[in-house]
Amino acid sequence: MISVRKVEVALGLVGEKAKLIFHFSFLASVGNLQSAGKAQHDYVSYALANKFDNEAQMRDLRRLFPILVILFFCYSAAAQRGRGGDGTRAAGAPNEGRGQRGGASLKIERDLEYGRAGAQPLLLDLYYMQPLPTPRPLVVWIHGSAPGTSKITTPATALVNAGGVSVASIEYRTGTGITLQMQLADAKAAVRWLRANASKYNLDASHIGVFGYGIGGQLAVLLGTTADVKSLEGDEGNPGESSQVQAVIDVAGPMNSGSLNPVDYVTKDDAPTLLIHGTADSEVSTRQSQMLVSALKVAGVETLLDMQVGVSHDLGQLLSPVAMQSVSNFVSQHLLGARIPPALSAFVSTPGDSFIDPVALDLGGTHYKLYPTPARGPKTYASYRLYLPPGYATNTTRRYPVIYFLHGRSVDSKRPITAGYITRIDAAIRSGVMPPALVILVQGLNTGWYVDAQDGKHPMESIVVKDLIAHVDSTYRTIATREGRAIEGHSMGGYGALHIGLKFPELFAAVTGNSPALVENVTDGVGDQTFWVSQSPTTLATTNADKARRQSIRVICGTADNLFAGAKALHDELVKLNIPHEFLPVPESPHNHDQLLQYEKFDTMEFYGKVFGPTKSPKK
Fold it and tell me: Contact 136/119 with Cβ under 8 angstroms?
C-alpha cells in the first residue's frame, strides 16, 4: 500500500492548497472517485475561504502539474492491472477479458423486418461492430431446413470483428406449400433490404457475401447464379436495389432439390464460390458439389471445392477449425480485398534428390510410412503415404485392391492430398461409386520421370516395382495380383504411370495418365536420347500391345494445358495400335491437378468401379 503521507514528504508538498490538489489527483488516478470528489470539495471550500496569493500559488501549481500528470497515468495503469473485467478490484489477477471500453463493441439487433410475404413478416438478425470509422462488408447467413433450425444462431458470427465483416442471419419461409423459388425470393428480398439500409447500419453495400448450409447453401448458390434472372426476384420490397452478391459459401447444399438447379443458371459473371462438403455425407451426395464446381470452372468463375475426409452432413463437423480458416481466407480475399498468395501446400516441398518426404505427418486422411529400398542398396529407405478405406480396421477378413499414385515434378507425396485426390477417393468409396481400395501415394524423386536412369544412379522404377509393391502386399491385406492393382499419376507422375504400367502390364490391371508430361526430348539426366525414346509410353505400348489390350487405360488432359498435344498424340498412337483406352479431354482445364479434378464433368472414380467392381475379395 502506497502511503500518501510519504509521497507528500517526497514531493515536498507544503501547505493545504498543494496537499488538497495532490489528494484529488492521486485519488482520481487510482479510481477512488468518491474520495476524490471529497478532496475536490475540500479544495474548493479552502479556495473560497482563503483568497489565492496568485503569483506564489501559480508557481506551486506549475511545479506540481507535470508530476501529477505522471502520477495520474502511472497509477491508472497500475490500478487497471489490478481490476477484474468488470472494473472491480481483483485478488491479484490480471484482466484476461477483452475489454470493449474505449473501442468498437459488438451490437446485435434482433428481428429486423426485411420484407413481408402476405401477412407474414420476414425477419433477420444483424451483428455488427460499433462504432467503426468505415462501412464493413456483409455476410448473409442462411440456415438449413432441419427441424429446430432458425436465424437465432449462426456460425458466421465468427467472422465479425473490427477489421472483419458484419453478419446478417435471415429467416425465410418454410413448411407446407412453400417452394424453393419462394425461399429464394425471400433471400433476395433480404439482400435488397440490407443494401437499402446499408448507411443506417454502416454496411458496405458493394461487398455482400452469402453463406449457407444445406438448403441454405443451395439458396446461397442460387443467389450467386441468378442475379440477372428478373423472374426470380419476387415482390417483397426494395425493387430498386440489386440482389447480386459478391461471394458465395455453400456448405453441403443440394443442387437438385426443388425446381431450381444452380447449374442451369451458371454464367461467367457469377460470384466467386467456395463449396465445402464432407466425403461421408449420406444426405447430399458430393457428386452434386462436383457437378457445380465443374460448371463454374468451365464458365470461368473463380471456384474452390473443399471436401472434408470422413465428415458427415453435420454442420459442426463440416465447419471444423481448418474449414473455418478456408472460409475466413475466402471472405478476406473476396469481400475485404486481402491478397492471399496461391500455394500448392502449406508445407515445404521435399528436396529433389530425396526419397523421403521430411514432413512425417499423417495428413488429410492418410498415414505416413517408410519402407526399405534394397534396389538402391542396403540400409536405404523411402517414404509413402497410405490411405485406408472405411472398414479396413474392422473387416479383418477382406482383401483390397491397391492404387499406386505418382506425383508430379517439383511437388511430392503431399500433393495428391492438397489437390483433392484423396477426398475424391474417399467420397467415391463411401457413396458406392467404387469399391473400397487402398491408395499408396508414392514419394518419388522430383526429377527422373519414374524411369531407372541409364547410369543406374536413380532406380525409381525398380523401387516401385520391386520394393514398394512387395512391401505393400506383405504389410497390408491386399489383392496381391494384377487384377487388384492400378497405377495412376499426374504430370511427370502421369508419364511415370504410363511408363511403368505399360512396361509391366502383368502387374497392373489399370493405368491412368493425368496431364501426362509426354516430352519428346531427354530430360533430367535419365540417359541419352535413344534410351529416352526406348522408355516412352508410346514405345512400350507398341512393344507390349497384346498385353496392353487387356488393360484398362485412361489418358486425361485439360484442353487449356500446354501438354494437351502430347496427350492427344499418345491417344492417336493407341488408336493405331488398336489398344482400347479412354481419352478424356477436360474442356478449359489448365494443368494443375486440383484444377483438372475440379474442371472434370465426369466422376473420375467411376473408372475404378469398373476396374475393381467385378473383383471378388478372397478371404485371408
Answer: no
Q: What are phi and psi of 74, to 5 degrees?
A: -65, -50
pLDDT exceeds 70 at position 231: yes
Domain covering 367-612 assigned CATH 3.90.950.20 in the classification: no
Cis peptide, bond prior to residue 342, ω within 30 of zero: no
Rounded average pLDDT over 146-171: 94
Averaged pLDDT score across all residues of the chain: 86
For the chain, which residues make up each domain, given as ranges? 4-81, 105-334, 367-612
CB 256 within 8 A of CB 291: no
Q: Do domains 105-334 and 367-612 have the same CATH topology?
A: yes
Residues 489/406, Cβ–Cβ less than 8 Å? yes
Q: Which amino acid is at 499?
A: H
pLDDT band, residue 102 (cuts 50/70/90): low
**What does the pLDDT read at residue 373?**
98
The Cα–Cα gap between 604 and 601 comes to 9
Handedness of CA 231, 236, 241, 243 (dihedral sign): negative
Alpha-helix residue ranges (DSSP H) falling in 367-438: 415-418, 421-430
Q: Is 136 left (phi over 0), alpha (psi -120 to 50) or beta?
A: beta
- The total of other beta-carbon atoms located within 10 Å of residue 304's CB is 18
Hey, which residues does 524 pair with through a beta bridge?
Answer: none
Residue 499: pLDDT over 90: yes
Q: What's the distance, Cα to Cα, between the start and end of the chain in Å?
A: 79
More confident residue, 163 or 345: 163
User: Per-residue pLDDT tens for 347-377?
Assistant: 778 998 899 999 999 999 999 999 999 999 9
Residue 238 backbone class (left: φ over 0; alpha: ψ -120 to 50; beta: rest): left
Class of domain 105-334: alpha beta
DSSP 459: B
**Residue 231 CB coordination number (10 Å):** 7
Is 320 exposed, middle or buried, given 0-12, 13-18 or 19+ CB atoms closer than 10 A?
Answer: middle
Write down the pTM of the prediction: 0.80
Look up residue 593 and give its three cell numbers.
491437378
Sheet holding 485-490, edge to edge: 367-372, 381-387, 438-442, 402-406, 485-490, 510-514, 552-558, 582-586
Percentage of residues in the chain having pLDDT higher than 70: 82
pLDDT in tens, 527-567: 999 999 999 999 999 999 999 999 999 999 999 999 999 99
**Residues in contact with 482: Cβ distance below 8 Å, sequence separation at least 6, in sequence order:** 506, 507, 508, 509
pLDDT value at residue 56: 45
Which residues is 46 bridged to in the sheet?
none
Using CA atoms of 219, 225, 230, 233 in order, give the dihedral in degrees to the nearest 10.
Answer: 20
For the record, the C-alpha cell of 77 comes out as 495503469
* Residue located via cell numbers 470528489: 37
